[in-house]
């Protein structure tokens, strides 16, 4: 039985609570695909078990809560959080150094991109909290902005594809590539604006 079917069986029985719980667990670094979880939530809405708009709200709450707990744990406990074995497995020394390099290179935008990097999402959020690079509200804005791109795509895709699973899975794979393309375009746009303002600022100084 594949992951999607297992999630569907669970969600059908327990509805919104089940979806929220699994998304919360995803935020802790447990290897359950977040996109498939959201798609499954959309599917049960398409089959009439839940309301799709409320499922979108639950999806947003679940992903932000999971991410927020990781960030808060790092911020509150600092390096002591690494004494907790599950977190120590997620945030190895190699990953910690890799995340530090990404922050140095891309700044706070790493928090936005993290939403689309399943293997690095939790390490990035924990590190951001540990190093106190950003405030909680800045973190919430960056992560929330990214979630507003990904969550509705997966939930409503599951909703509209509930009756045609083959078409749905094809669109899921295309959606993964499409979201990455959108994110890349946004980052390029931000980089272009930043470079342009920097040049204008330098010209003013001269």
From TrEMBL:
Localization annotation: Cell membrane
Domain VTT intervals: 32-159
Keywords of the record: Cell membrane, Membrane, Transmembrane, Transmembrane helix
Keyword flag Oxidoreductase: no
Topological category with respect to the lipid bilayer: Multi-pass membrane protein
Pfam families reported for this sequence: VTT_dom
InterPro entries hit by this protein: DedA-like (IPR032818), VTT_dom (IPR032816)
Record flagged with keyword Nucleus: no
Main location: membrane
Transmembrane stretches, start-end: 7-32, 52-77, 136-157, 177-195
Family (UniProt): Belongs to the DedA family.
Protein name: DedA family protein
């Amino acid at each position: 039985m594949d992951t999607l079917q297992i999630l569907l069986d669970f969600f059908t029985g327990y509805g919104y609570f089940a979806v929220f719980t699994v998304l919360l667990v995803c935020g802790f670094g447990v290897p359950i695909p977040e996109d498939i979880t959201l798609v499954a939530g959309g599917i049960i809405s398409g089959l009439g078990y839940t309301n799709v708009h409320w499922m979108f709200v639950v999806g947003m709450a679940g992903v932000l809560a999971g991410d927020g707990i990781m960030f808060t744990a790092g911020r509150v406990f600092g390096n002591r959080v690494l004494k907790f074995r599950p977190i120590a497995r997620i945030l190895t020394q190699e990953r910690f150094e890799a995340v530090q390099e990404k922050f140095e290179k891309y700044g706070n935008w790493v928090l936005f991109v993290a939403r689309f990097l399943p293997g690095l999402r939790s390490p990035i959020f924990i590190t951001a909290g540990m190093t106190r690079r950003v405030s909680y509200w800045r973190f919430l804005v960056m992560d929330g902005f990214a979630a507003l791109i990904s969550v509705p795509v997966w939930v409503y895709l599951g909703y509209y594809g509930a009756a045609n699973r083959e078409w749905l899975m094809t669109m899921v794979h295309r959606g993964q590539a499409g979201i990455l393309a959108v994110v890349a375009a946004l980052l390029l746009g931000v980089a272009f604006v930043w470079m342009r303002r920097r040049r204008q600022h330098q010209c003013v100084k001269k």
